[in-house]
C-alpha cells in the first residue's frame, strides 16, 4: 500500500475488475458522445423555456423610428373583442394591397402597424386568429423586393411574432422563409435584416424539420455574416438565431459555420465586449460548435476564445451567461488535449482562474449551474492527457476549497447533485496507470476524503433505488476497502453499516449489481475478517 501522494498500485485482477474502474473509464470512453448528448439535452432545456428558444418582439429594434410602447398602450381586450379586431386588421391589410395613388403606401403601413400592434402588444398574441384570417400569404406579398424599409420592417415584425406561437402556427411561415432569408442579405438595411433574423430564429427554435428547411434554403451564411456586425443588437440577434439553427444533433451546419471567414474572430470580439447579453448569445454558439464539431473544437481551443470564456466565468454573476460559458468550456476540454496540455496547466494563472470560477459556481444555489459545473470538471482529466499532468490536475482540485465543498454537496444537496459530487470525488481518488491497466489509488486523496466525512454519502448511494448511483457507491466502497491506509477500509465501511447496504443486492434482479456486491462482501468480510 502506497502512502502520501503516491498512487497505490492495483492488486491482481479478480472477477470484480470490470466493474471496479467505471468511476474512471466512463469519462474516457464517451467524451465525444457525451458532448453530443449534452447538445440534445441543451436543446430540450431551451425548448422548455419559451423565451430562450422563441421570442415575441414587443418593442422596436434599437435605431428604428417607431416609438416605444407607452403606458396604457398594451392591448388589454376580452378574447372575443381581440379576435374581432385581429380579423378586421387582416381584412384592412388585404384591402391596402389593392390601394393605388398618393395615399396607398401610407395605408399599407397603417394596416401593417395595426396588425403588428395586436401581435406584439396583446398579453396573449392572437396568432391563431391572424393565421386563420389569411395574414401569412398577405404578409409574404408585403415582403416583396423594392418595398420600403418601413414596410419590410413592420412585415418582418408581424412574422416574427407569428413564428413565436405554437408549433403548427410557426409552420405556417413556410411560404415566407425564402423572402425572410433573402432580406438578410447585404442589400437590406441593418434593421430589416435584424428583424428577419429574429423571425428566422423563432422558426429555427421550433424543431429539427424547420431547421433543415432553413439550412436547405441557405439561411446559414447570411446569418453568420450578420453576426459579424459591429452593431451590438444585430450581432446579438444573429448569434441567437444561429444557435437555434445549428443546435443539432447533426454536425453539418456547425462544420460549415466554423469555416466561414470572420466567424471565430467575431466570437472572440463579442466575448471581449462589456455587453453580457451579446456575450451570452455568442457563448451559446460556442456551446453548439464545440458539442458537434471536432474541427470547430480544434480551431476554438487554439484561439483566444478559451481565455475569454474563463475570464467571463470569473467576472460575471449572471446566471444566463455562466451556464453557456461553462458548457462551452466543458466541451472544449473534453474534445481536444491541447486545451488541457497547453492552456489548463497547473501553475498557470488562467488555470487558477478556472478553478476559482468553478468553486464559485459550485457554491451557487442554482441546481442547473451546479450540474453544468460538473460537466466541466469531468473533462479536466481526459484520456489523452499524460499521466503526470492527469495526476497534477486532480491534485490541484483536491488541495483547493473544492474538495470540502464537494463532500458537503454529497451529503446535503439534491439527489442528482449528490450523484455528480460522488462521481467527481471518486475520480479524485484514482489516476490512470496507462493503456488498459486498472487505475492506481491516490491514497492521500482517498484517506482525506473519507476523513472529511464522505463515506456515509457514498453508502447512501448504495441504498439508492437508482442502479447507476448504487453502482457508483459500490465502486467507491471497493476503493475504500482496497486502498484505505493500514487495511482499515473494511472496518470503516462496517462501522457505517456498509455491509447492510451491500447485502440488499444479495438476491437482486440485476445480475451485475448482485455479483458485484456479493463479491465485495465475500472478499472483504469473509471467514478471515476480524482475525488478527
Please write out the topology.
Blueprint: E1 7-8, H1 17-20, H2 22-29, H3 31-48, H4 50-53, H5 79-97, H6 104-121, H7 127-132, H8 135-142, H9 149-163, H10 167-171, H11 177-182, H12 190-204, H13 208-216, H14 220-227, H15 232-245, H16 252-259, H17 263-272, H18 276-292, H19 294-301, H20 305-315, H21 319-335, H22 337-343, H23 349-362, H24 367-378, H25 387-398, H26 402-412, H27 415-428, E2 430-431, E3 440-442, H28 443-451, H29 455-462, H30 467-483, H31 489-495, H32 498-503, H33 511-524
Antiparallel strand pairs: 1-3, 2-3
Please characterize this protein's 3D structure.
This protein has helices at residues 17-20, 22-29, 31-48, 50-53, 79-97, 104-121, 127-132, 135-142, 149-163, 167-171, 177-182, 190-204, 208-216, 220-227, 232-245, 252-259, 263-272, 276-292, 294-301, 305-315, 319-335, 337-343, 349-362, 367-378, 387-398, 402-412, 415-428, 443-451, 455-462, 467-483, 489-495, 498-503, 511-524; strands at 7-8, 430-431, 440-442. With 532 residues, it is mainly α. Strands 1-3-2 form a 3-stranded antiparallel beta sheet. Strand 2 and strand 3 form a beta hairpin. Helix 18 runs parallel beside helix 21 and helix 27 (415-428) runs parallel beside helix 30 (467-483). The radius of gyration is 29 Å and the shape is elongated. The model is unreliable at 8-31, 46-51, 67-72 and 382-388 (pLDDT under 50).
Amino acid at each position: 500500500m502506497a502512502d502520501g501522494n503516491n498512487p497505490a498500485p492495483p492488486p491482481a485482477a479478480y472477477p470484480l475488475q470490470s466493474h471496479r474502474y467505471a468511476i474512471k473509464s466512463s469519462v474516457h470512453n464517451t467524451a465525444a458522445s457525451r458532448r453530443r448528448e449534452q447538445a440534445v439535452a441543451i436543446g430540450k432545456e431551451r425548448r422548455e423555456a419559451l423565451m430562450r428558444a422563441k421570442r415575441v418582439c414587443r418593442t422596436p429594434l434599437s435605431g428604428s423610428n417607431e416609438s416605444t410602447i407607452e403606458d396604457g398602450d398594451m392591448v388589454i381586450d376580452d378574447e372575443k373583442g381581440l379576435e374581432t379586431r385581429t380579423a378586421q386588421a387582416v381584412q384592412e391589410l388585404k384591402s391596402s394591397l389593392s390601394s393605388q395613388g398618393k395615399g396607398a403606401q401610407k395605408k399599407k403601413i397603417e394596416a401593417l402597424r395595426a396588425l403588428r400592434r395586436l401581435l406584439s402588444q396583446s398579453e396573449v398574441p392572437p396568432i391563431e386568429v391572424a393565421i386563420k384570417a389569411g395574414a401569412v400569404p398577405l404578409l409574404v406579398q408585403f415582403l416583396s423586393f423594392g418595398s420600403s424599409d418601413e414596410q419590410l420592417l413592420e412585415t418582418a415584425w408581424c412574422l416574427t411574432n407569428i413564428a413565436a406561437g405554437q408549433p403548427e402556427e410557426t409552420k405556417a411561415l413556410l411560404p415566407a422563409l425564402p423572402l425572410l432569408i433573402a432580406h438578410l442579405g447585404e442589400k437590406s438595411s441593418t434593421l430589416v435584416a435584424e428583424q428577419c433574423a429574429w423571425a428566422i430564429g423563432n422558426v429555427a427554435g421550433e424543431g429539427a424539420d424547420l431547421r433543415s428547411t432553413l439550412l436547405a434554403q441557405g439561411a446559414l451564411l447570411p446569418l453568420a455574416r450578420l453576426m459579424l456586425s459591429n452593431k451590438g443588437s444585430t450581432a446579438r440577434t444573429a448569434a441567437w438565431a444561429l444557435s437555434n439553427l445549428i443546435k443539432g444533433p447533426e454536425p453539418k451546419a456547425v462544420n460549415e459555420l466554423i469555416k466561414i471567414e470572420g466567424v471565430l474572430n467575431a466570437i472572440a470580439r463579442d466575448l471581449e465586449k462589456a455587453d453580457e447579453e451579446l456575450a451570452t448569445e455568442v457563448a451559446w454558439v460556442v456551446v453548439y460548435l464545440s458539442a458537434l464539431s471536432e474541427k470547430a473544437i480544434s480551431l476554438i481551443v487554439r484561439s483566444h476564445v478559451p481565455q475569454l470564456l474563463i475570464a467571463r466565468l470569473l467576472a460575471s454573476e449572471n446566471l444566463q451567461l455562466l451556464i453557456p460559458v461553462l458548457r462551452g468550456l466543458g466541451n472544449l476540454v473534453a474534445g481536444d488535449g491541447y486545451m488541457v496540455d497547453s492552456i489548463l496547466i497547473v501553475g498557470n494563472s488562467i488555470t487558477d482562474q478556472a478553478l476559482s470560477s468553478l468553486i464559485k459556481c459550485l457554491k451557487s444555489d442554482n441546481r442547473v449551474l451546479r450540474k453544468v459545473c460538473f460537466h466541466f470538471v469531468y473533462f479536466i482529466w481526459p484520456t489523452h492527457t499524460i499521466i503526470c499532468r492527469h495526476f497534477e490536475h486532480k491534485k490541484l482540485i483536491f488541495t483547493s476549497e473544492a474538495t470540502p465543498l464537494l463532500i458537503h454537496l454529497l451529503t446535503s444537496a439534491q439527489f442528482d447533485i449528490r450523484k455528480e459530487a460522488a462521481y467527481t470525488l471518486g475520480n479524485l481518488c484514482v489516476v490512470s496507470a496507462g493503456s488498459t491497466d486498472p487505475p492506481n489509488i491516490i491514497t492521500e486523496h482517498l484517506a482525506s476524503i473519507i476523513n472529511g466525512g464522505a463515506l456515509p454519502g457514498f453508502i447512501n448511494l448504495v441504498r439508492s433505488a437508482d442502479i447507476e448511483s448504487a453502482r457508483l457507491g459500490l465502486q467507491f466502497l471497493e476503493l475504500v476497502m482496497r486502498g484505505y491506509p493500514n487495511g482499515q477500509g473494511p472496518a470503516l465501511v462496517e462501522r457505517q453499516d456498509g455491509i447492510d447496504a451491500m447485502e440488499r443486492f444479495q438476491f437482486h434482479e440485476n445480475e451485475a449489481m448482485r455479483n458485484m456486491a456479493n463479491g465485495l462482501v465475500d472478499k472483504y468480510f469473509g471467514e478471515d475478517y476480524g482475525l488478527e
